[in-house]
Amino acid sequence: MELSKFKALNDVDSVNAYISALEAFDGIAELQELKELARTRGGVAEGKSILDVGCGFGLETRRLAEAAGAKGKVHGLDKSADFIKEAQRRAESAGQSIDYQTGDATALPYGDNSFDCVRAERILIYLSKVSAALSEMRRVLKPSGKIALIEPDFSTNTINISDRALTRRVLDHEIKTAVENSFLPGSLKVALERLGFANIKISSRALIFPQELAASYFSSLAVNALEAGKISTSENEVWQTELDDLKAQDAIFATISYFLFTADAP
Length: 266
Ligand SMILES: C[S@@+](CC[C@H](N)C(=O)[O-])C[C@H]1O[C@@H](n2cnc3c(N)ncnc32)[C@H](O)[C@@H]1O
Hints:
Elements: H1 12-26, H2 29-41, E1 49-53, H3 61-68, E2 73-78, H4 81-93, E3 99-102, E4 115-121, H5 130-140, E5 141-159, H6 164-177, H7 185-194, E6 198-208, H8 211-227, H9 233-248, E7 254-264
Parallel strand pairs: 1-2, 1-4, 2-3, 4-5
Antiparallel strand pairs: 5-7, 6-7
Helix pairs in contact: 6-8, 8-9
The chain binds S-adenosylmethionine.
The site of S-adenosylmethionine has 18 residues, from loops.
């Protein structure tokens, strides 16, 4: 399952496969550390009003609701109706009150100065209008409210396939095609400063892929490169064979770096 290909979702099986991949990803210890840091630095606490932009099916949104408690109010917004339906189902079965709705990050359906905290994780990389989404997040934040953004940089992907030149070509193809903004973290500090955000703090973690997820993700990257004519059939075979061998030995070493930006609204 390709983690980056949510745009291609068009049937229940793909949605379910994508949900499984996101759950496996969510279980990565280094990402959990970054999420916890995002909650602390992002001001998440009892009684707060919080918005999760691009909430998916609510993996983190439900943790926010837990932290905000009965006195707080948590909202989740996503453009995928399938994900919002699944998020609502999960919240209901856990007895949590979360206000989920479908919508677009670049036109948030909330009034000015509505939230104490706004957060977004792995959504800005997909957007062609990142600054519009950031402006909207600032608009709906109360004065001095806190923003928390978690995004990866695709040029930090690593995999221990022995043919390094082949690896470079496969990963370069992913960088060029996976998402709209493969190098987004490098521009976020300036983007936040331009919008008047202050007290900007940046942290990162290199996420270590679990074996299953690494095997399926990095297998798909070579297939993509093959289909685009960037590698040959025999190179793909070499790649897939080595990946299978590494997996059989529990020896795939694959990583990607994620970055957390927190800041205070003007
Ligand atoms: C990789 S998922 C991340 C979901 C969730 N934030 C998480 O970390 O588990 C990306 C999410 O962004 C949503 N998304 C993409 N473009 C969007 C937009 N313009 N407005 C709102 N949500 C969007 C997708 O539907 C998807 O749920």
